[in-house]
Amino acid sequence: MKKYISTLLAVAIVSAFTYSLHVNAQASNANAAQGLEISPAIVELNAEKGKSYHLNIKVTNVTGSDLSYKTSVNDFQARDETGSPKVLIDSNANEATSLIGWVSALDSFDLSSHATKTIDTTISVPFDAEPGGHYGVLRFFGQGPTFDSTGVGLSASAGALILIRVDGDINESAGLASFYTANADRQSSLFEKSPVSFVVRIKNDGNIHVKPVGTIQLKNMFGNIVTSLPLNDVSANVLPDSIRKFGVDYDGWMLGYYTADLTMGYGTKGQVIMASTSFWVIPIKAILLIALITITVAYIAIRIVKRYNRYIIEKSKNESKKKNR
């Protein structure tokens, strides 16, 4: 068991690094579509109370016009089970996880078209900071000082997510909200054919974000392993007091009864989440069609045999009549 947990931790560390590169590229592309490109798009920091940490964030104006930028810091939380962030404005902020006031004030600045500027900022963690996770977004707002050639004013905004882990009484506690199979986003345990979607919903009851990483092992009715499907191989976060949904599909030849075994590891102590679910893959329409064809062929064969028998009987009667004459 210890060896297995160590393997899960190693996978989680490697996946976390891969995820960082993946998310930065995705978020940068999304920000670029709004006129800004920010790198890194996500900052994760292990912090101690009373210490300060310096951040360097690159901001690129990818529009065709010069822009003037203002900045602000807001808290954020999970918007839904997809993990997309929801920016919290003023009174909606959660004081226990807030980092507003930790980030040093940033001046407004101008940025020419396609130019890049490195923003230096400092995060100062208070001595009385709550242990656990603190989540914020450093937002940049751009406004073109002049109109473009079409007469339309240009504007852009984007942000870098900041996830801070403050040392202390850390509670890493995640559990399984549900594990099921689905067909076209509808929960089901009966399928006519693949693909089969596997849905895992993880709930974070702790005070720090976690990255559950693992596999779903698929077995057929004979207990043979069909395949092992990686789950959350980009090592996405589940924020405290939220549920995040993970999914993976299997598209292959399937027939009969199957069992799916879930194993996910998370946290610094190698915590493990395990569960199982089962389902059937039965081509009902094909079976009904075959049955219909079989019944039809049998019916026709019976009719042919009956007609043949009547023919033989009639023929025998006719021959008997001829002999009697």
Global morphology: elongated
Mean of residue pLDDT values: 83
- How helix-rich are the residues, as a percent range? 10-25%
How many strands?
A: 18
Low-pLDDT sequence parts: 1-33, 145-154
CATH topology of the largest domain, by name, is Immunoglobulin-like
CATH architecture of the largest domain: Sandwich
- Topology as H/E string? HEEEEEEEEEEEEEEEEEEH
**What's the CATH class of the largest domain, please?**
Mainly Beta
Under CATH, the homologous superfamily of the largest domain reads: Immunoglobulins
**Fraction in beta strands:** 35-45%
Largest sheet: 6 strands, mixed
The domain count comes to 3
* Structural class by SSE content: alpha+beta
Report the radius of gyration as a whole number of Å.
Answer: 32 Å
Number of H- or I-type helical stretches: 2
CA-CA gap between termini:
98 Å
Describe this structure in words.
With 325 residues, this protein is of the alpha+beta class. The protein has three domains: 34-166, Immunoglobulin-like (Sandwich); 174-281, Immunoglobulin-like; 289-325. It is built from two helices and 18 strands.
Sequence-ordered SSE layout with sheet pairings:
Elements: H1 2-33, E1 36-39, E2 42-47, E3 52-61, E4 67-78, E5 85-88, E6 109-111, E7 116-124, E8 132-147, E9 153-166, E10 174-183, E11 186-187, E12 190-191, E13 196-204, E14 213-219, E15 225-231, E16 242-250, E17 256-266, E18 271-281, H2 284-324
Parallel strand pairs: 2-9, 12-18
Antiparallel strand pairs: 1-3, 3-7, 4-5, 4-6, 4-8, 8-9, 10-11, 10-13, 13-16, 14-15, 14-17, 17-18
Structural key phrases:
single chain; 325 residues; alpha+beta; Immunoglobulin-like; 3 domains; 5-stranded mixed sheet; 2 helices
